[in-house]
Amino acid sequence: MTDTLLRSLRERLLDESEPLAGLLRKCLLLGAETGSEALREWARKELNGYGDEDEVPQYRKVPAAISVDSINGRFWTKGQVVDRLQLPREAREYVPDEISFKQPIEELERLAGQKQFSFASPGLAYAQAVWNGKLGPFQNIVGLSYVMSGSALAGVLGQIRTKLVDLVADLTADTPLSELPKKDQVDAAVSHRIGDVYNTTIQTTSGPVAIGAKARASTEGLTVEDALRLLDRVQQAAADVADTQRAELLDALAELRTAVESDEPDTGDVVTKTGKLRAIADKLGVASVSAASSAAAQTLTELALNGAFG
């Protein structure tokens, strides 16, 4: 087992077509054989994805551009790509410099195969609401999303493969392939090539965004108070709705606000009323109302999933 495990891992690393998931599973076994919990923990996180409070390694953080859909008078602009610094200063607080990819390695490989992909976050939704508050009449930001090329994630995968090569090279430098490296040697190699895999951090509003299987961290520090401010944006946008249609929207908004502000909010009730508001807003077909309602609904849903309402 010792001979085949080390030799197989080393030989397969040199094959660029070898999936990273298989190599990492061999690292799990090697960590078990040598007693290195550090190696097992790193391989396990790469395979299963990083948790909400895990500090994502720097090699999994990638800059992303922002796609903007907007209305200016009679003109509609869709998919305009901007840099974070082009957003109003107050909105940048909710948009990080880098995107943290927490999902399992096999999901990263799937995304890397796409020419381009996009995704959103509650932080972007709040930035959208803040931005809209600074625009003049007949101007509206309808949607914000992150856009990224698959080649950027291919670069992340390349870094992981290189770290594996360096790690195995360190382990086999002074140890025959027929023998197991000592635990201390493995731990030292992991610390040198990868870092401390036990560090964790609580993500803040301006911190990394997570997408994929572990995306619950994507609330980015938004609170119930933030969600209530988003509901205020919906109320302001209601001014664009005809008088005959406004009552139903305001009633749904009032019901949702009452549910959120109650002493003991019920998660199911909040989610139900959030869905009702979103449906009414979409039915009206008013861009400003749809955008504001979408931002509020997305944030409230994320907060509900994370247990903010008991």
Architecture overview:
This protein is α+β, with helices and mostly antiparallel strands and 310 residues long. The chain has three domains: 2-58 and 154-193, no CATH class; 59-102 and 121-148 and 205-216, no CATH class; 224-305. Helix content is 54%, strand content 13%. Strand 2 (65-72) and strand 3 form a beta hairpin. Helix 1 (2-13) packs across helix 7 (150-173).
Specify Rg, calculated over alpha carbons: 24 Å
- Tell me which oligomeric state these chains represent: single chain
**Total number of beta strands:** 7
Strand content: 5-15%
Helical residues, percent: 40-55%
Principal-axis shape: elongated
- Quickly count the helices: 12
Low-confidence stretches: 198-220
Main sheet: which strands, in order across? 3-2-6-5
Helix and strand content put the structural class at alpha+beta
Name the average pLDDT. 82
Total individual domains: 3
Succession of helices and strands: HHHEEEHEHEHEHHEHHHH
Q: Could you tell me how far the N terminus lies from the C terminus, measured between alpha carbons in angstroms?
A: 50 Å
